[in-house]
Specification:
about 270 residues; alpha/beta; Rossmann fold; 2 domains; ten-stranded mixed sheet; 10 strands; about 40% helix
Length: about 270
């Protein structure tokens, strides 16, 4: 049985991620690990709570609150196997998430912009960059009602992520659109690109296949524009998982799409 990891802070974006994970769990015959991170707020305790509680009492009270909230979420979805996990021994969220083994991570995001993206980024972008398994990101204002129209964004240099996505989800009944965002930098002849697309369709035996070359100055913005105009339910992309200075120089198209898209984005690492 596959495992879907849902990190949560119990806010709206995480609720949307959980609802999406439940739909996917039914599609994938998977169980859900619902994870929250518990970090003792020492400053708040010393400033306010130390008058009323001992440190142990306050620690256990907060830990019990987290466990109780997980149980409440589990009660919302009685027809899906859900395991609650409270992480205690981590100072930061990202290492806590990556310490869990999963076939898929589904998480909420409020997005970020400006310099924060370069030096820190949102939690979801950091997970997209660092996770070995596929990561699906849901925005706070996004509802994942169905998975009928799927968009694969590709330049056909990397195609392994297509097979990984097909292994993860049942895509035989979905409309599977493929798009090549042409920024004017490609030297390939358009007819050659279409031939490559047909080869990929045959190689992976893709059902309900459609391919289009879409002109835009930006791959990320072109992807979102195309997805918005074609009633897409899920965007699937590959990421190189670049880190450090290389990421600063080249950026990550998948991370940018995660940041600006209101449509759920599934990123899959291609090494």
């Amino acid at each position: 049985m596959k495992t879907i990891l849902v990190p949560t802070d119990f806010h709206v974006a995480a609720e949307n991620a959980m609802a999406a994970a439940v739909k996917l769990a039914k599609n994938m015959d998977a169980k859900i690990n619902l994870m929250t991170m518990f970090k003792f707020p020492k400053f708040k305790y010393q400033l306010v709570e130390s008058v009323v509680h001992t440190e142990d009492e306050y620690y256990n009270m907060l830990k019990d609150d987290a466990a109780r909230e997980i149980e409440r979420w589990k009660e919302w979805y009685p027809d899906v196997e859900i395991e609650g996990i409270v992480k205690e021994n981590f100072d930061e969220l990202i290492p806590a998430i990556l310490s869990e083994e999963a076939d898929l991570i589904v998480m909420g995001s409020e997005g970020a912009n400006g310099w924060k993206d370069y030096f820190q980024g949102t939690n979801s972008q950091n997970v997209v960059r660092k996770a070995d398994c596929p990561v699906m990101v849901m925005k706070e204002n996004t509802a994942f009602e169905k998975i009928e129209n799927v968009l694969f964004v590709t330049d056909f240099e990397k195609t392994g992520f297509i097979e990984k996505a097909m292994d993860l989800f049942n895509l035989k009944q979905t409309k599977n659109k493929f798009v090549f965002i042409d920024t004017g930098e490609s030297t390939d002849d358009r007819s050659d690109i279409y031939d490559t697309a047909r080869d990929v369709e045959k190689l992976y035996d893709i059902q309900n296949f459609d391919f289009e070359i879409y002109r835009h100055d930006s791959v990320a913005k072109g992807t979102v524009e195309y997805a918005d105009s074609h009633d897409i339910d899920l965007i699937i992309m590959f990421t190189h998982g670049r880190k450090g200075f290389e990421r600063f120089l080249f950026g990550s198209i998948a991370e940018e799409v995660v940041n600006i898209s209101d449509i759920p984005v599934l990123s899959i690492v291609e090494n």
